[in-house]
Amino acid sequence: MSNIGLLTVTHDPSGKTINLFKALQKDLEEIYSDLFITISDQSSSELIMQMQNSKFNVKIIPKLGAAQARREVVNFGLSGKSEYFHYCDFDRLLTWGKTYLDELKTTVAGIPHYDYQILGRTERAMNTHPEEWIETEKITNKICSLELGKEVDITAGSCSFSRRSAEIIIEHSKEKMTDAEWAMIVHRIGNSSVEYKAVEGLEYHEEINGVSRKNGSTEEWLGRLKLSLIISEIAIYTGKTSAQSG
User: How far is the first Cα of the chain from the last one, in angstroms, to the nearest whole number?
Assistant: First the structure.
């Protein structure tokens, strides 16, 4: 089996992921040949200690947003020897392992078949999310699907790619959101195929995947709408020399 590295990021001041990580640590260490995480310096010191005492390669970074944390972990992963990588937001990885561990294992085993693979949600998994996530992400996913010429769910926080794709991503990634950017970099600049797989495990668990703002409020709807616009613009303009993203 090809060696596959895990790339993940977290910002967890309250340490809400500690217990679930403890429960899944052994499984995760068996699934991947190498594990890399960037943790914000504002995260729980207990979580940081727990990670440092595991097989994870740990890098503590300033909190400068998810996109920067994701770029940092790809760069970190390239310092190892993995030929392929699975990127997954830490909270998403833990809820996936908690509910669909076998699916996670088979998904990881299939990673070496693709230069880049978007990992999205089945209809059932999508419907576990708050309404304001579902409705706004429909627009983002529609635009990304049109740009790629295939139906995709790009905003689930997970993807996989080869070392070559990782190197191209690091060279060109600069936007404030990476969800669509990385796929478009590989597609347009790397001239590689971008594949898609929908999984059950990227479902929503309020206690782990939830955000601090109150779900359903007008502010939350507006926030999700703004994210949708940013990711959609990035999907359209990344890798096109004739246009610049706003």
Answer: 42
| Of 128, 110, 73, the residue nearest 196 (C-alpha) | 110
pLDDT in tens, 49-72: 999 999 999 999 999 999 999 999
Please give, one letter per residue, the 3-state secondary structure of the chain. CCCEEEEEEECCCCCCCHHHHHHHHHHHHHHCCEEEEEEECCCCHHHHHHHHCCCCEEEEECCCCHHHHHHHHHHHHCCCCCCEEEEECHHHHHHHHHHCHHHHHHHHHCHHHCCEEEEEECHHHHCCCCHHHHHHHHHHHHHHHHHHCCCCCCCCCEEEEEHHHHHHHHHHCCCCCCCCHHHHHHHHHCCCCEEEEEECCCCCCHHHHCCCCCCCCHHHHHHHHHHHHHHHHHHHHCCCCCCCCC
User: 15, 205, 212: which is closest to 97 by C-alpha?
Assistant: 205
Nearest residue to 167 via CA among 195, 154, 186: 186
Per-residue pLDDT reduced to its tens digit, 138-167? 999 999 999 999 999 999 999 999 999 999
Task: Classify each residue of 39-63 as buried b or exposed e, where b means 16 or more C-beta atoms within 10 Å of its C-beta.
Answer: bbeebbeebbebbeebebbbbebee
